[in-house]
Amino acid sequence: MFGRWVDSPRLNAWVGDPGASYRYSGNTFEPYPWTPTLLALRERAEQACGTRFNSVLANLYRHGGEYTGFHADDERELGPEPIIGSISLGAQRTFRFRAKQGGDTVAVELTHGSLLRMGEGTQRLYKHDLPVRKRVTTPRLNLTFRYIHPL
Ligand SMILES: O=C(O)CCC(=O)C(=O)O
Ligand SMILES: [Mn+2]
Questions:
Q1: Closest ligand 1 atom, residue 93 Cα
Q2: Domains of the chain with bracketed CATH
């Protein structure tokens, strides 16, 4: 990151249609191809969210010490009002929203097999995070389905 090696607080992989690449910190990442399981989950997520997805970012949190800091998924290639479908598998973890303007943090528990739909306005108005939970000793896999627009 920024020309230096840093420890990642989680493992991730980018999967999607050919050309659904994303730019991050000056690099362009090409997606790995879909697997049959991920394609089936994409279809379920598309039906439940009422939109199309052409990529998925898979995040693996090996234990409760791994986390995602507060951020919004508001990169330009996601378009002005991204809809993101987020499937959780494995350990239950807390997910939090905080308005960019400040104010209270709202927490939801993401249970095994759940789908979280982040709709219009969510990335524009809020940041989200997945905090450290020291008591959690088992892994969690998260699949965030997205639609990447070619820039
Ligand atoms: O693990 C999660 O539930 C969220 C991951 C996330 O926010 C992201 O990949 O952008
Ligand atoms: Mn995110």
A1: 3
A2: 11-146 (2.60.120.590)
